[in-house]
TrEMBL record:
Residues 12-29 have a biased composition (Pro residues). Residues 1-40 are annotated as: Disordered. The chain crosses the membrane at residues 46-69, 90-112. It is a multi-pass membrane protein. InterPro entries: MamF_MmsF. Residues 1-11 have a biased composition (Polar residues). It comes from Marilutibacter maris. This is DUF4870 domain-containing protein.
Length: 146
């Protein structure tokens, strides 16, 4: 055998099929958490802004958002986050008042910046969590509005 194949001999390789390749299965949507299902994009964005507004407007914005949405069962996620932000801002106001009173014995001058820093950090963390559709609960918060 010289390495060339006689054209009259049958080929050793099977003939190619003219069938199109199988199409891949359609992509599956990733399952979402229950809080993301319940909260639409608008609710998550408004919840994020409600938490961030505590830095500038204290209790005003969380109170307004909560009062507008407290009777709307479709806005349960937004309502819960507005109550959480409102409770936290009330706690921060109480902490600032106590710190102001304690400035007369010097310790309040140290506490006031710490309360402000805690407000800044926790509001930002809450905004990031709620933007992702997660529930957020502030630590060390008096739950006055339930």
């Amino acid at each position: 055998m010289s390495g060339t194949q006689d054209p009259n001999e049958p080929s050793q390789t099977p003939p190619p099929h003219n069938e199109p390749p199988a199409s891949p299965p359609p992509p599956q949507a990733a399952p979402e958490s229950a809080s993301t299902d319940a909260a639409g994009s608008d609710d998550r964005n408004l919840a994020m802004l409600t938490h961030l507004s505590g830095l500038l407007f204290s209790v005003v914005m969380p109170l307004v958002v909560w009062l507008i949405n407290k009777d709307n069962s479709a806005k349960a996620y937004l309502n819960e986050q507005a109550k959480e932000a409102l409770n936290f801002q009330i706690t921060i106001m109480i902490a600032f008042v106590v710190s102001f009173i304690l400035t007369f014995v010097i310790i309040g001058a140290l506490l006031m910046p710490l309360v402000g820093l805690a407000n800044l950090i926790l509001c930002i963390v809450a905004a990031v969590k709620t933007a992702n559709g997660e529930n957020f609960r502030y630590p060390f918060t008096l739950r006055l509005i339930s």
